[in-house]
Amino acid sequence: MTDIDVDVLVAGAGPIGLAAAIEARLEGLSVVIVEPRSFPVDKACGEGLMPGAVAALERLGVKTEGASIAGFRYADERRATEYRFRGQAGRGVRRTALHDALAARADELGVARVDARVGTIEQDARGVSAAGVRASWLLGCDGLHSTVRRTAGLEQAAKGSASKRRYGLSRHFAMAPWSDLVEVHWGPRAEAYVTPLADDLVGVAVLGPQLTSFDETISEIPELARRLVGAQPVGSLRGAGPLLQRATARTSGRVLLLGDASGYVDALTGEGIRVGLGHARAAIAAISGVDGHPAAVYEREWRRVSRDFRMLTGGLLAAAQSPVRPLIVPAARALPAAFGAVVERLAR
């Protein structure tokens, strides 16, 4: 195996795969995306872009339409606290709209697509082959249950009780948003994220243990249940999980893992897209750079980009699954400066 078809082969055309392809083209690299699903690609998620994600998309030349997000509000049954971003606002964007905008930019830059799945992966010192394409590098951007991660031998077996694994459910409602904040409602067993998406559309995502019921969770949050009385659901209920996924490393030879495929903690703090966009930028910079071996450079940069997300989200998740869960909102309200500092750090 000697001939190289393209510089970069991207497995997965979700937002991070498309962003990586755009990054590569902006660096003058040739790119092919492998994706078996029809466009636009949808997903169960909160759909709130943090200010850092909005800025990253603008740098890529990707324009998104949606609702402005001014900050976060945490609430339980008795109390609430909020924090408004300093500087640039975030944006609530329907996942299919985000995907359309990224796909349009990729098409504009000449990114080629192959309608296929990545099965076997073969690589040597000069390149890697998958889905009938020979490339210098393969970027695994194929999500939580990544085939690339597993095939490349980077899958880490799940640890701990199945009762600790968490799942996501999401649904849209045809109604005007009542706030310009992302609301996180802390129910007895699960959390509900409410995100303004348009003048007439609100997204609600529920995060909780296995077999969590969307409707039961909403009914256990009186404030949110009252808001949604009479609201017309739009589309079907979507699910994802288990959310906790780990990789033994982010690289294996000429294979690099990005976004959810590289390991995922939880969606609690809502900045997965921002972190994934950081992975895309770091991966292409490592491939294009001259300082050190690209795989080693990317592994180091992945840790830097992901550090705050993994530490802060991991800590919050541990608290959410412990006896101190009822104290999370009271603590955020009692320590507004600390709450704001955490939100601001994750947002950027």
Features:
globular, FAD/NAD(P)-binding domain, 18 strands, seven-stranded mixed β-sheet, 348 residues, alpha/beta, eight-stranded mixed β-sheet
Total helices: the number is 10
Rg over C-alpha atoms, rounded to the nearest angstrom: 20 Å
Judged by helices, strands and strand pairing, the structural class is: alpha/beta
**β-strand number:** 18
CATH topological fold name: FAD/NAD(P)-binding domain
The CATH superfamily title: FAD/NAD(P)-binding domain
N/C terminus separation: 43 Å
Tell me what the CATH architecture is: 3-Layer(bba) Sandwich
Shape: globular
The CATH class is Alpha Beta
Q: Which percent band covers the strand fraction? A: 25-35%
Descriptive notes:
A hairpin with a 2-residue loop joins strand 14 and strand 15 (201-209). The strands form three sheets. Strands 1, 2, 8, 9, 10, 11, 17 and 18 form an eight-stranded mixed sheet that branches. Strands 6-5-13-14-15-12-16 form a seven-stranded mixed sheet. It has one domain (6-159, 243-347): FAD/NAD(P)-binding domain (3-Layer(bba) Sandwich), CATH 3.50.50.60. It has helices spanning 15-26, 51-59, 95-108, 147-151, 214-219, 222-228, 272-288, 294-320, 328-334, 336-347, and strands at 6-11, 31-34, 48-49, 67-69, 71-75, 80-84, 90-92, 112-114, 122-123, 128-130, 133-140, 166-174, 181-186, 191-198, 201-209, 232-240, 251-252, 255-257. The radius of gyration is 20 Å and the shape is globular. The protein contains ten helices and 18 strands. Helix content is 33%, strand content 26%. The chain is α/β, with parallel strands linked by helices and 348 residues long.
